[in-house]
Specification:
Bound molecules: pyridoxal-5'-phosphate
Low-confidence stretches: none
Helix content: 25-40%
Shape: elongated
Distance between the termini: 20 Å
Largest sheet: 8 strands, mixed
Number of strands: 16
Strand content: 15-25%
Number of helices: 10
């Protein structure tokens, strides 16, 4: 029983989830995305053990962490670097996702200085309105990149369900495949067709993932076992890969409705409370600095997260069969944003099982 809030990661389940996705995708490449775990090398290795053909992260600092433990698998950079970081990028990254020619030119110069080649995936915006050139601009972008001696155009790709919440379908992914076949003629060699992220698994399940999509970049579904379209379990994956335990520092029965004149809470919100009478509540030693309470669900469904301030998480434990005591822990399953914040918090211990 830990005295500190602790995230526990079941590496065996990460490997099994990766394997299940690789198998379901029938020969397409799966790139395991580690960014939500700050590039945890343990998790990266578990993804590779499950059949991921490479890894991807959005930040160079995270990639450095993976390279430092000797991971030599191909690593993709998901977020384009600023041109000033081109040199750092070509040192550790095999393939980066690109949409701005100024950045690709900087990468070309950096690769030339290293006597190396840098691979890019040209990103196309298919309606989600995050990164990517507009489809009609793709030929012009590729033409400009083809003039660069130290850049290999490895593929074309897209991101969906990130900013605009647009669902991958046979239509938009079909458009990607059609753009790829035109682009292959233009560049004169076969291209990887990177058809998105976890959300594209829904297209697979719906039978709408085109044959021509040869690659997906998967993070959340491996780590949390859910669809990012519905946030429901998908492909029978484990949904309890990552759990949070937090120690209890107070456990008392109190009214469920605050008493006195109501103003603002610590974050400027004006909370409302349902009067459920006197209830037993536990306070756990973790707070908004480490995790958004909305993103936590208690593993025991009889306990219910009520809210949090910076450092105190309040949980209704009235319905637990035995009242927890100070020093006991409660266990929660975090959603994506909670996982992201937990891994980023230095105040939360990370434990990997089985220990390596
Ligand atoms: C985050 C990200 C992914 C992985 O997304 P998931 O929903 O976690 O699978 C893939 N590609 C890009 C460009 C990303 O930014």
């Amino acid at each position: 029983m830990s005295a500190r809030a602790t995230v526990t990661v079941d590496l065996g389940k990460i490997t099994e989830n990766t394997r299940a996705i690789v198998d379901a995708l029938g020969g397409r490449d799966v790139i395991g995305v580690t960014k939500v775990t700050c590039g945890s090398p343990e998790i990266a290795l578990a993804m590779l053990a499950g059949g991921a053909s490479g890894l991807a992260d959005s930040r160079l600092e995270n990639v450095a962490r993976m390279r430092a433990v000797g991971i030599t698998a191909p690593i993709w950079l998901l977020r384009s670097p600023v041109p000033a970081l081109a040199d750092d990028t070509v040192r550790v990254i095999d393939v980066s996702l690109q949409s701005e020619i100024v950045t690709v030119r900087a990468l070309d110069a950096a690769a030339a200085a290293h006597g190396a080649k840098h691979g890019i995936v040209a990103m196309v915006d298919l309606g989600d309105l995050r990164e990517g050139v507009m489809p009609e601009e793709l030929p012009r972008f590729l033409e400009a990149v083809m003039a660069l001696e130290h850049i290999d155009i490895v593929g074309i790709g897209t991101s969906l369900t990130c900013y605009g919440a647009i669902v991958p379908t046979g239509d938009n992914l079909g458009e990607l495949v059609a753009l790829a076949s035109v682009a292959e003629k233009q560049v004169g060699h076969p291209l990887v067709v990177s058809g998105g992220m976890s959300s594209s698994l829904d297209a697979l399940v719906a039978g709408e993932l085109p044959e021509g999509v040869t690659n997906l970049r998967i993070g959340e579904s491996i780590l949390l076992g859910v669809s990012t379209v519905t946030r429901q379990p998908i492909l029978g994956l484990h949904t309890d890969v990552i759990t949070l335990t937090a120690p209890i520092i107070e456990c008392m029965r109190k009214p469920s409705k605050p008493r006195g004149v109501s103003a603002q809470d610590a974050f400027g919100g004006r909370p409302t409370f349902e009067d459920r009478g006197v209830r037993r509540r536990a306070i756990c030693a973790i707070g908004r600095q480490d995790v958004p309470p909305e993103g936590l669900v208690a593993l025991d469904s009889r306990a219910q997260v009520l809210g949090a301030s910076s450092d105190h998480l309040i949980v209704d434990v009235e319905d637990l069969p035995t009242p927890p005591r100070v020093g006991d822990t409660l266990t929660f399953v975090p959603n994506y944003s909670a996982t992201l914040r937990l891994f980023t918090s230095d105040y939360v211990d990370k434990v990997f099982t089985p220990a390596g």
